[in-house]
Each structure stands twice: as structure tokens, then as C-alpha cells.
Fold this sequence. Notes:
51% of the residues lie in helices and 23% in strands.
Amino acid sequence: MAAVNTYRIDVSREGRWWMVAVPELDLLTQARNIAEVERMARSIISLALEVALDTFSIDVHVDAHVDYESVLKRVQERRRHAKELEAQATQDVVAAAKALAREGLTVRDIGQLLQVSHQRAQQLINA
């Protein structure tokens, strides 16, 4: 099986456009938004080399004034942490619902105290 060529794609912002450069092939195109970058890069490479769009890979590097990679990493970490906290909160509310039910409170009262519907309170008790 032949090795697949990988082309580095350098992306930078100029005015309202994203400039899409393929330095190895001395190619340049533009995209209206970041979502178009990969499609535009593949298209220009495919046309220049006269090969199918799926016969090579690309490695996109965005030159932004914001360190988006560390921002993205921080956002992903916070989302992961938020999911963990949500899971813990769910465990806590289930435990609270069961404890209140053991104390003899009605499902409606439990729902009111936990700020959920009485149907949800019943689900929590049965969880």
C-alpha cells in the first residue's frame, strides 16, 4: 500500500477572509469561514495535482492572534469537569430524594423541595 502524502495547510485571517496556503505546493486560496478551510484546501490540492480529494491528508495550522489551542484545551477541561459535577449533583439529588421519601414526605413535597416535577421526584426515588 502506498504512503499517503500529508500536506501542511497554513491558515491566517486577512480582513473578512481566511487565507489557506499550501506552502509545499506553493498554492493559495481563501475561505469565507473556518468551516470551509479543509474543503478549500483539499479542492486546490486536488486540482493542482490532478488527484482525487481523498488520496492525501492535510495538517491544518491556524495562525490566530488568540492561542486558540490552549483556549480549546481549557474549554474541553472545563466541560469535562462540568460533566463530573453534573454526575455528582445527580447522585446527590437521588440520595436526597430517597432520604426524604424514607422520612415519609410525599412525592409532590419532595419534588417541590428539590425543584423538580413530582414525576421526576418519583424517578429519583426509584433510581
